[in-house]
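Side project, low priority. Logging it here so it doesn't get lost.
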Amino acid sequence: MKSRFIVYVILAIAFQVGLGYFTGQGQGGIAMLLFIILVEFDPQFSFSYLVSKRRHEKKESK
């Protein structure tokens, strides 16, 4: 599970570096944006799922 997370980070950084190389300009937050998109599409890591799950746990504990 951690290895998939690391692969997403490497892919995002590689894309940012490649895009910067081909355009000749810095590409700022494109890697972060791509990383978030990759994580959202993966059902094991979805941020929206984790947030809703945590809210549900807090409601049950009250």
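Brief comment: The chain has a mean pLDDT of 77.
Revisit when time allows.
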